[in-house]
Amino acid sequence: MTTQQQKLPPVDPMDLAGIDDLLTDDEKAVRASVRQLCDKLVDPYVADWFERGEIDDIRGLAREFGSLGLLGMHLEGYGCAGMSATEYGLACLELEASDSGVRSLVSVQGSLAMYAIWRWGSEEQKQQWLPRMATGEAIGCFGLTEPDHGSDPGSMRTRARRDGDDWVLDGRKMWITNGSIADVAVVWANAGEEHGGIRGFVVPTDTPGFSAPLIKHKLSLRASVTSELVLDGVRLPADAVLPEVRGLKGPLSCLNEARFGIVWGALGAARSSLDAARRYAMEREQFGRPIAGFQLTQQKLADMALEYTKGLLLALHLGRRKDAGTLRPEQVSLGKLNNIREALEICRTARTILGANGISLEYPVIRHMNNLESVLTYEGTVEMHTLVVGQALTGVSAFR
Question: Which among 17, 102, 167, 322 counts the fewest CB atoms within 10 Å?
């Protein structure tokens, strides 16, 4: 054995590949800060929030996230932190290690609502909303999905029509995170070919004709506000439209931002479940010894650790590409397709190690597993991302 080998530190069971060595000190500091905040403000309460289907003082939690710079953290200016994509990804991982619903609050605020205004809005819209959204004083939501049009947003039925100098919006949006607590909604509507097709609108939620009924009876993302948006003759001034984009490019660019965070976030749920299963296996005794000592349990743990490690390496690679300005949408689809699928399988396998205890909220596993069933579908289903990757491989579109 060489001198160098003798000096190696003990292996970290949650970082077998030593991926931490690839992170900068700043990236580790961001991760540690988010973990500290979640340890204090989320983890002691989140099982109760999930069981009751509501978060206590969600606005206060948003302000706490804002005070740490988490809201719109990868955007520049307007009170945003201007951090790197990789730092944002690490923050998403830590947030979702606590709960997918909590990460969704931050993701929808920053990568959907704030990003839409930051990327496609007027200077007046940016000045009006972004500084308050960055602090958590104002909450945003993103209205794209409709009851009859999820994966095919180009067929949306929500309409925007001109009436003099005003715009008037009519339609419905469904499964909208933050909708019932939002101060502002970015709503996408079909304005007709003469006005540029699909257009985005910045809608203050106190505008007459706008309502956001809460969606109840969920068995997933219960520690999250999910709503329907109802727009009945919502009259807006001419400057409510996002001026810098027309067509599906607008909403799809925002979705790509959110998907990047999900690539990282799902790994948080996976890590939490893997660690819970590992610790449980070392404490739970059957047939006179810890179940960690049985070959089948070790195989499960090894397979989970392997998939988690591969997913983290992929996320980090995509983060480096995003920071370098070379990340392609197809690569984000590759990351979401793999990491959500494998994270869900990790949670399901972890549940088997915990046995009957795996369905109890005393442990995080069933909560993460249920949450990931939603994450698997939103921001693009497995089928849609599969076809994106398939088209990149073959050059042939199979969407229609």
Answer: 17
What CATH superfamily is the domain 140-246? Answer: Butyryl-CoA Dehydrogenase, subunit A, domain 2 (2.40.110.10)
Q: Domain ranges in the chain?
A: 16-135, 140-246, 250-394
379 is known as an active-site residue: yes
Q: Is the distance from CB of 190 to CB of 156 less than 8 angstroms?
A: yes
Give the active site residue among 27, 94, 228, 379: 379
CA separation for the pair 32, 315 (Å, rounded): 18
Residue for token pair 């925002």: 254
> Locate tokens 């289907």: which residue?
53
- Residue 283 structure tokens: 């404490």
User: What is the DSSP secondary-structure string of 29-87?
Assistant: HHHHHHHHHHHHHTTTTHHHHHHHT--TTHHHHHHHHHHTT-TTTTS-STT-----HHH
CA distance 97 to 273: 9
Which CATH number, 3.30.70.2760, 3.10.129.10, 1.10.540.10, 2.40.160.20, labels domain 16-135? Answer: 1.10.540.10
Q: What pLDDT is recorded for position 2?
A: 55
Q: What is the pLDDT, as a whole number, of residue 173? A: 96
The residues with which 141 forms a beta bridge, in sequence order, are 185
- Please tell me the distance from the alpha carbon of residue 363 to that of residue 46, in angstroms, as a whole number: 11
Helices of type H across 179-230: none
pLDDT along the chain (400 residues), means of 10: 70 95 97 98 97 95 97 97 97 98 97 97 98 98 90 87 96 96 97 92 98 96 97 97 93 93 98 98 96 97 98 98 97 97 98 97 98 93 93 91
Q: Are strands 159-163 and 166-177 parallel, antiparallel or unpaired?
A: antiparallel
One-letter identity of residue 212: A
At 3 the pLDDT is: 54
Cα–Cα separations (whole angstroms), residue 55 to 2, 11, 90, 339? 54, 37, 23, 27
Angle, vertex CA 344, rays to CA 342 and CA 350, nearest 5: 100
Q: Which CATH class is domain 250-394?
A: mainly alpha
Q: Which of 156, 171, 226, 246 is nearest to 203 (CA)?
A: 171
Encoding tokens for residue 122?
């007027």
DSSP H or E segment with residue 290: strand 289-290
CB 234 within 8 A of CB 203: yes
- The three-point CA angle 312-29-41 to 5° equals 90
